[in-house]
Amino acid sequence: MASFRRVLSKRVFNAFVTILLIMLVNFLLFRVMPSDPADMMTPRDPTTPPEVKWRNIEAWGLNDSLYVQLYKYFVGTLTGDWGISFWYEDNVANVLGSAIGWTMLLLGTSSALTFIIGIILGKYAARKRGKPADVAITSFGLFFYGMPIFWFGILLMVLFVSIIPLFPSGQYISAGLHPELTLTSISDILWHMALPCATLTIGSIAGIVLIQRNSLIDVLTEEYIVTAYAKGLTEAQVMKRHATPNARLPVVTTLAMDTAFILGGAFQIEVVFSYKGLGYVTIEAIGRQDYPILQFVFFIGGVAVVIANLIADLVLVKLDPRVTIT
Amino acid sequence: MTFEKKFESGTRRLLAFNPLLADKAGLSMRNIGRTTDLFMATWMGKIGTGILVFFLGIVVFTELFVPYDPGDFTTDKLLDPSLEHPFGTDQVGRDVLTRTLHGTKASLMVGFTAMIISMGLGTIVGLASGYWGGWRDEVIMRVNDVFLSVPWLVLMIVIASIWGAQDLTSVIVVIGVTGWSTTARIVRSQVLSLKARQFIERAKALGAGDWHIIRRHIFPNVVPLIFANAILTIAISILSESTLSFLGLGPQDVETWGRVLEDAYNNNVALAGPFMFIIMPGICIVVVVLGFTFIGYAMDEILNPKLRKR
Fold first, then answer.
1. Which of A54, A99, B19, B172 has its CA at 20 to 30 Å from residue B223's CA atom?
2. Rounded to whole angstroms, how far apart are CA atoms B118 and B231?
3. Please, are residues A201 and A178 in contact by the beta-carbon 8 Å criterion?
């Protein structure tokens, strides 16, 4: 167990360093770019009075030396002071609070669906390797993989909103309703989430399906599988006891790595369906040059992925004693 | 992590490369004739190559023959498809088919050039990090982690929106510099396993310098691994361009499929029609990306003999 603790501490340490570096890159990105940070951090609306710029320079501490700014940025970020949105003139945390919740709901639901359906399809394809069912599943996987996910969302919108009007065209809830724990409210939220969630699930399922399939096929060519068959086990037994546990490892890694990809997909989907989550607000922020919001999204996105990977690493060590730290 | 991350950005990870197989990969790279035969024997190789040839043909055809100039504004706005305008017209009356045909060139160009940037960067960083080892390796890998961790789309839109320039070159550079991290990882792990081999030791014993070893012994053994990856990177770069364009951060100086999609979406075509306006450019993207994915996949099947059909 001592070695497990060493692996653990090294992983946690690396994750921590990565997060600090993300903050450093984030800090520098918004300062080394060719434009003046004071101008950049101030709305480019020509009617903005010059006092606003000076007030912002003061508020942002842009008169301080770079080191002092860096120090202040780190302390602020770590203590939950993430800056003031230019557009909303409110704390970034307040602006993004509810948006993050909606994104988590969308992401959580679709990730769970992706994981479950992906594993099932992947296993099935591996068992039918080379047969029509496998070719069909693999091709569909690749097909959706090669599709810009925002475009797939638009296609579903054309189909199920314009041509057959089954679902609403956007928002997370009907006008007039408020998110609360009543049957009407919850079913309305689910109804609004159906299309975005379906898009995200179908669009990102290929990764899991193909990895599950390939790693299972890899395992199935191992000699101990032949041995298992030779000693008279049925296919179901071999799959359950010998093949699946070993094929599980790459799937865990993939799921963690997919976090970044799925998050990007969710951003696009939110824009397509005007689903007012983190992605929607972020894209709005680009148009409004609302940099504190972008800076925070950059930070939180990185942290989310680092944590997902950390968890995956730890699960992996638990699942497979052979995994050691590299 | 875009493919190791969508791949990073997802697709690249589909080909889970196994560095241990690099020797066999090296063999099949040296024997180009046999590799080509094997490649064309796979249905993915055939279809992928067919698709690529088709779209390259479109670029040539467009340059030579296309009837309308994409810049012609007319009063025939947002028409449904007809014989005269097979894909309909856009919000300022331009022919959508013509725009799609003209978009082919820039879209493919983004794919190829962004691929060269990110593969170049990734290979150099991976070679340096793997060959030096030690604290340099640690530093480079931690920086690499940052690029792998920040979601690819967020990284791209933040850099693109801070940079602010929206011409073809900047878009290519943005896509290129955000896509190198997976390649660096793959190259590094391959270099690490090569460094421990005897033939490197032998070369050192014979007095070979670092540069010679890297150039003559390590790099040639890395190429087969990154080859399939490079093809997939083209596909991802094309996807990236269309996504950036859709979000309003694409190149403003040339026609690309992404821009046609952006125009269509911004003019509420998804809800009000004409649907062909938004469907056709998307289909082109899907087919081209699929083509490159097939080629990459077929390559992997050859470079990864364990999966070869027996």
1. B172
2. 12
3. no
As a whole number of angstroms, the distance between CA A93 and CA A98 comes to 9
DSSP letter string, A122-158: HHHHHHTTTSHHHHHHHHHHHHHHTS-HHHHHHHHHI
Q: What is the pTM of this model?
A: 0.83
Asked whether A122 and A216 are in contact (CB, 8 A), the reply is yes
Judge whether B44 and B295 are in contact, CB under 8 Å.
yes
Phi-psi region of A80 (alpha: psi -120 to 50; beta: other; left: phi over 0): left
Question: CB A151 to CB B261 under 8 A?
Answer: yes
Return the closest-CA partner of residue B101 out of B129, B151, B66, B74. B66
Q: Is A91 helix (H, G, I), strand (E, B) or coil?
A: strand
A260, A312 contact by CB (below 8 A): no
B244 closest CA partner among B182, B166, B183: B166
Q: Do B149 and A210 touch (CB under 8 A)?
A: no
Segment among A24-28, A64-68, A298-302, B120-124 with least mean pLDDT: A64-68
Using the beta-carbon criterion (under 8 Å), do A161 and B271 form an inter-chain contact?
yes
Residues in chain B with CB shorter than 8 Å from the CB of A35 are 162, 164
Mutation target vs A (from B55, B129, B150; most A CBs, 10 A cutoff): B150
- Grouping H, G, I as helix, E, B as strand and the rest as coil, residue A49 is coil
Q: How far is CA A273 from CA A172, B40, B247, in A?
A: 9, 42, 13
B164 CB neighbours in chain A (<8 A) are: 35
For B246, which residue in chain A has the nearest alpha carbon?
Answer: A150
Burial status of residue A20 (CB atoms within 10 A of its CB: 0-12, 13-18, 19 or more)? middle
Query: What is the average pLDDT score of chain A?
Result: 81
SS3 A84: strand
Q: CA B72 from chain center: how many Å? A: 31
Q: CB neighbours (10 Å) of residue B263? A: 20
Q: Report residue A176: phi and psi, to 5°.
A: 95, -25
Nearest CA in chain B to A297: B154
pLDDT, one tens digit per residue, over A142-153 is 788 778 899 999
Residues A53, A38 contacting (CB under 8 angstroms): yes
DSSP chain B: ---SSTBTTBGGGGS---GGGHHHHHHHHH-HHHHHHHHHHSHHHHHHHHHHHHHHHHHHHHHHH-SS-TT---S-TTPPP-SSSTT-B-TTS-BHHHHHHHHHHHHHHHHHHHHHHHHHHHHHHHHHHHHH-HHHHHHHHHHHHHHHHS-HHHHHHHHHHHH---SHHHHHHHHHHTS-HHHHHHHHHHHHHHHTSHHHHHHHHTT--HHHIIIIIIHHHHHHHHHHHHHHHHHHHHHHHHHHHHTT-S-SSS--HHHHHHHHHHTTHHHHS-THHHHHHHHHHHHHHHHHHHHHHHHHHHH-GGGS--
Query: Of the candidates A34, A158, A294, which has its C-beta nearest B275's C-beta?
Result: A158
Please report the ipTM that was assigned to this predicted complex: 0.81
Residue with tokens 């770590």: A78
- Residue A313's CB is within 10 A of a number of other CB atoms, namely 22
Q: How confident is the model at residue B5 (pLDDT cuts 50, 70, 90)?
A: very low
Contact A302 B285 (CB under 8 A): no
